[in-house]
Amino acid sequence: MEVIIRPDAEAAARLVARIIEKELRSNPHLVLGLATGQTMERVYRYLVNLHREENLDFSLCQTFNLDEYVGLAAEHPGSYRHYMNRHFFHQVEMDLRNTHLPNGLASDLDAECDRYEKRIEGFGGIDLQLLGIGQAGHIGFNEPLSALQSRTRVKALAPATLAQNTPLFPDPTEMPHRAITMGVGTILRCRRCLLLATGESKADIIAKAVEGPITSMISATALQLHTRCTVIVDEGAAERLQGTDYYRWIFANEPEWKEFQDA
Ligand code: F6R
Question: How many Å lie between the centroid of ligand 1 and the Cα of residue 37?
Answer without folding.
Answer: 4
